[in-house]
Amino acid sequence: MSLATWNLENYSLENRMTPDGYRKQYPKPEVQKTALRKTLLGLGADILLVQEMGDARFASELQRDLRRDGADYPHVRVMGDGPRNLAVFSKKAFETRPHPVVEFSLNGKTERLRRGLLEVFFPDEGLTVFVVHLKSRWTVDAADPRAARFRLGEAIAARDLVLKKFPEPADARFLIAGDFNDWGDRLAPLFVQQLGLYEVFSHAPRSHGGELPRLRDSVRRLSNALRGLPNSGISVMERNNQLGMDGSSRLLLPPPRTFPAVFPWFRLDRIYQRGFAVRSARVLRGREWARLSDHSPLLAELELP
């Protein structure tokens, strides 16, 4: 079973700069939509976990256009009616258990996960999937620069919801994926240590063209991107893990860099899992991907026991 997570960067109405100038509440340009669909066809994932999807109208549009192009995702759910929602597109049937209101306390006030938590269950695989999109670093609270405390509160609330559902997570089969906006790499202990999850890139016995780029190569790519010069096209980092069902392996590595897509430096997007083997994990990045979204997509091949 293959699963991808991708922040599509405002697949909705948004204020945008277009070839005709600045436009308010303007849809994602058709040329980007077409290229994005071709990319999704190329990924071939059985399950797509999406962040920054528009409301149900935009999800239906993408579903329809993907079917026309040759990729049928008959099972779709989008949670929310704002401009940046969580969504699941799947070739496999699932049950939906949305959590639009997830509350937590911060500085004596009751707050909510800005985008909620979308839970879906795949009965044939016995797999529960949670989709998240935690608070970005933009904040109006001077006492919480880059919204770090708010985002931590969201992550704790998500962890507590999972623990309520799975009091003994070691006996469960589930994953949590999406855009964690974890700018300082500080949230992993909530999921790895306290829930016993494994980040899919965290074990890499061997790589195939997947070594992290050297600093000089990254600087060269950034320089080319800023000057509008071509790099080597689309680059793919892949790790074929050959893991046991317990996720055991020899070498622990951090999550991949996924943001900004034109020059990935921050490790914002994750797939945490428990209960199955990860046969391969890929992050797709390069200049071509950066034209579609400011995030790079992640794709994992999972094997159920």
Give a nutshell description of this structure.
The chain has 305 residues and is of the alpha+beta class. The protein has helices spanning 30-43, 56-69, 148-165, 188-192, 215-227, 287-290, and strands at residues 2-11, 14-18, 21-26, 47-53, 75-79, 85-90, 95-99, 103-106, 109-112, 117-122, 127-133, 174-179, 198-199, 206-207, 234-240, 269-274, 277-286, 298-303.
Task: Please describe the structure with a list of short key phrases separated by commas or semicolons.
305 residues; alpha+beta; Deoxyribonuclease I, Chain A; eight-stranded mixed sheet; six-stranded mixed sheet; 6 helices; globular
Give the arrangement of secondary structure elements.
Elements: E1 2-11, E2 14-18, E3 21-26, H1 30-43, E4 47-53, H2 56-69, E5 75-79, E6 85-90, E7 95-99, E8 103-106, E9 109-112, E10 117-122, E11 127-133, H3 148-165, E12 174-179, H4 188-192, E13 198-199, E14 206-207, H5 215-227, E15 234-240, E16 269-274, E17 277-286, H6 287-290, E18 298-303
Parallel strand pairs: 1-4, 11-12
Antiparallel strand pairs: 1-18, 2-3, 4-6, 5-6, 7-10, 8-9, 10-11, 12-16, 13-16, 14-15, 15-17, 17-18
Helix pairs in contact: 1-2
